[in-house]
Please model this.
Amino acid sequence: MSAAPPIHIEGDIEMRIPHGHVMARLGRALGRLPLPPAAAHVRFTNVNGSRGGDDIRCAVVVELPRQACLRVERLAATPRLAFDASYRRLVRQLERARERGQQARRHPKKYYAASRALGGA
Model:
């Protein structure tokens, strides 16, 4: 198992951010990756201020080695619900990236396949 990436959690002071919940779920999801991410950033913001409604935004950015950063944002009524929605989306994106990598490994490049067909090494 690889070392856990640094997870940075930021947010407004008046919000009750579920630090333990965020660290546990995000650490578990990122720990399953073949290469450990450079860092993960979770930011909570209150979009509408004190007006109410589904206005807590959770933005998750994961910096992956040799790949573009993954960024996910979701709105909800509480920080925990916003994080859970962002987390589900992030897991789907990580799964799709893993599947793309597997598909690329399953199909050899055309020059390799041609050399093998012609009897080359």
The mean pLDDT is 83. The first helix runs from residue 19 to 31.
